[in-house]
Design a protein that fits this description.
The protein is α/β, with parallel strands linked by helices. Among the domains are: 147 residues, Rossmann fold (3-Layer(aba) Sandwich), CATH 3.40.50; 185 residues, Rossmann fold. The protein is 34% helix and 16% strand. The protein contains 26 helices and 25 strands. A hairpin with a 6-residue loop joins β24 and β25.
């Protein structure tokens, strides 16, 4: 091993603490071995600072004095759903060793790439696909602002974008404070028949920050102030032309197909895409929009998942932020949770998201929702809805249940979930009534990008051996395949579980299931796997004594994913294991009506649901069941995430649990003993 100084990875110091606290820093600067605060005695190889902001002045001076590289960092162009001040870490960074993208007074790496790079056909195709995704999901740098259609106007409308005073991009974008008034005057003159929409930062109107156009816009009769937080795409829908000084909003307007007039020199000006009131001698090359996008979003910007700390891509970042936006928007509003245990109250609000407001009422008979509130109940607690007061029975009831990639460990052991589902019209395991999942699978148009995403997720789940609970089975060997016999895997369930009561009306016990499976395949090697909650003693579902003769092998200490590798066929009432078997290409026979049956992917020997007429591909089923239907939450930030993020979290947790198995599960074992002794099984 070479221990010479040249072989080591360089060390970087951070100009301020906020840089060292970035969750994605190590992933975006993987060439560096570590990042520490700047101290006089440190001998670093590079110094990191925030662009050309005043807080970076000392860092730039130190770098110049020590003859070290100064690396300028800034938030990327697709940063996050929420603001940094609200606790949302960035999903992307720009890393520039030459300058910084908003500084037109000198070159930057971005400017050099746009000016001189050659882009392959594949790279430009990727750029076009990503541009289409940003348009489809209506994503911007920040994505918390709601979509609000502007009132219709019979006159043309033009957007003028203000910026906060002191923004570094103004000074370094070859502009100044006076340029904003000149921009407004030019917009009024160039569009004499149009209404001028002036977008002001909300903090300027409230007096917390200073802007440039508030007073002038209020005084002119053709100007309309827009001061509320609103999605930029709602603005682009209403206008054809956008005037900016140096705001990134101008580039997003180009993506939306708007004409853009620049009164300063932002990174996207000077390439023939915009009408420019300022020139830059270094920018004389005409570039297409896909080329500037490829340079900016694909080459210049670096991406990482702030919840896992792992490097990512623009496409995966779009997937994550668009899922956050979709869920936060869908579940915004006021909620009344009824009948939740104290333990569940600790986390159910996280799954509704930051735009939801949840209050709890333990006693259903006392649950009186306000007119704006939706009722939320745990799906298996049927008595909750029955005992609601008469005044609450016309209020929409949403049902909550565990998700399909739930946790590392059992919910009955009080392991907090990583995923839940919330259903507005039923619940996925009850085929007697429609559910949001059933309607989604029956009607949703699954675009190619979503299906490719589902394929990658499915392959990752299979590769890593994940299931719903992911109970550690390290040290246990799998049964060996018998070449001369077909292997049937029969999955036991908790017989009192709501999914069995509703989803399997013909066969209701594990003994009946075994009897049916043995009758269907009398010569097969039949492996029976009871439910983990039954094995732990927490729930009911043990076999009748004479049923034990129906199977050849009973396995309790091997994970379901390992057993599926040995099975030719899986038989189940309505267990989620059937869905996990489909992911792995195993033939599945159902005796009830689980959520994954009736779509052309399973063999049904129980009742069929007449509402399920559509034939789905496996990846369409995966997209609906794992990407679109469930809710996922990061347990540390309590922020909504997506299926891919939780998958990586579970994989990491499983790797840790393999080395910490005894200590990790000791509290669960103690709780299990207490529960079974003093509370009993149910």
């Amino acid at each position: 091993m070479d221990n010479s100084p040249r072989a080591r990875r360089p060390l970087a110091v951070c100009a301020n603490r906020s840089i060292s606290q970035l969750a994605i820093l190590a992933a975006c600067l993987s060439d560096y071995q570590g990042f520490t605060a700047m101290k006089p005695w440190h001998r670093p190889d590079a110094i990191l600072g925030w662009g050309r902001k005043p807080t970076s002045r000392k860092a730039r001076q130190q770098a110049k004095r020590r003859d070290l590289p100064y690396i300028a960092l800034e938030d990327g162009f697709l940063r996050s759903w929420g603001l940094g001040v609200s606790g949302y870490q960035p999903h992307s960074l720009v890393v520039d060793t030459v300058g910084i993208y908003y500084d037109a007074t000198r070159p930057s790496e971005l400017e050099q790439v746009i000016s001189s790079a050659t882009f392959s056909t594949q790279e430009l195709e990727r750029a076009k696909n990503c541009m289409a995704l940003l348009r489809h999901y209506r994503l911007s740098k920040y994505n918390h602002a709601p979509e609000r259609p502007l009132p219709h106007s019979p006159r043309p409308q033009v957007l003028v974008v203000d910026q906060t005073a002191g923004d570094a991009s103004i000074k370094y974008g070859l502009a100044d404070a006076e340029r904003f008034q000149q921009m407004l005057d030019a917009a009024l003159e160039q569009h004499p028949d149009a209404d001028i929409l002036v977008k002001i930062h909300p903090d300027v109107v409230s007096g917390h920050k200073q802007g440039h156009l508030l007073k002038a816009a209020r005084m002119h009769p053709r100007c309309q102030l827009i001061a509320e937080d609103i999605s930029p795409w709602s603005l682009f829908d209403a206008v054809d032309s956008v005037h900016v000084v140096t705001s990134q909003l101008g580039f997003e307007a180009l993506l939306a197909g708007c004409q853009v007039v620049c009164h300063g020199m932002p990174f996207y000006a000077g390439w023939g895409l915009t009408q420019d009131h300022v020139s830059c001698s270094r920018r004389g090359v005409t570039r297409r929009l896909d080329e500037v996008f490829a340079a900016t979003y694909l080459r210049y910007c670096r991406y990482a998942n702030p919840y896992t700390g792992r490097a990512s891509s623009l496409e995966a970042t779009i997937d994550l932020i668009s899922d956050q936006k979709r869920r936060y928007t869908q579940l915004a509003g006021n909620w009344l949770g009824v009948g939740f245990s104290r333990w569940k109250r600790r986390f159910v609000g996280d799954f509704l998201g930051e735009l939801a407001h949840l209050r709890h009422q333990a006693q259903p008979a006392q649950a009186l929702p306000t007119p704006s509130e939706k009722l939320l109940v745990w799906s298996s607690q049927q008595d909750t809805v029955k005992h609601l007061p008469a005044a609450a029975r016309d209020t929409p009831v949403w049902r909550m249940e565990d998700g399909f990639i739930r946790s590392v460990g059992l919910g009955v052991d009080l392991v907090k979930p990583l995923s839940l589902v919330v259903d507005s019209c039923g619940i996925h395991y009850d085929p007697e009534h429609p559910s949001d999942l059933e309607q989604l699978l029956a009607n949703h148009d699954f675009p190619p990008h979503l299906l490719e995403r589902a394929k990658r997720l499915r392959e990752r789940l299979v590769e890593s051996g994940l299931s719903k609970y992911n109970i550690n089975s390290a040290g246990h060997s799998r049964p060996r395949r018998r070449n001369d016999q077909r292997t049937l895997l029969v999955i036991g369930q908790v017989e009192t579980d709501a999914s069995v009561r509703h989803g399997s009306p013909w066969f209701t016990t594990n003994s009946e299931l075994l009897s049916q499976a043995r009758a269907a395949a009398p010569d097969a090697w039949l492996i029976y796997k009871p439910h983990p909650d039954v094995v732990s003693g927490a729930r009911l579902g043990s076999l009748e004594t004479d049923s034990e003769a129906l199977y050849d092998e009973c396995i309790t200490d091997v994970s379901i994913t390992d057993l599926l590798l040995e099975a030719d066929e899986l038989h189940t009432l309505c267990s989620l294991a059937g869905f996990e078997a489909l992911l792995r290409g195993c033939h599945v026979v159902t005796y009830g009506t689980p959520f994954y049956a009736g779509w052309g992917l399973t063999e049904e020997r129980g009742p069929c649901c007449p509402r399920r007429q559509r034939k789905l591909s496996l990846d369409e089923l995966v997209a609906g069941c794992l990407i679109l239907y469930p809710l996922y939450v990061d347990p540390y930030s309590h922020q909504v995430v997506n299926a891919e993020t939780v998958t990586e979290m579970v994989i990491h947790s499983m790797m840790q649990s393999n080395t910490q198995h005894t200590l990790r599960h000791l509290p669960h074992s103690l709780y299990r003993w207490y529960r079974n002794t003093f509370i009993g099984r149910h």
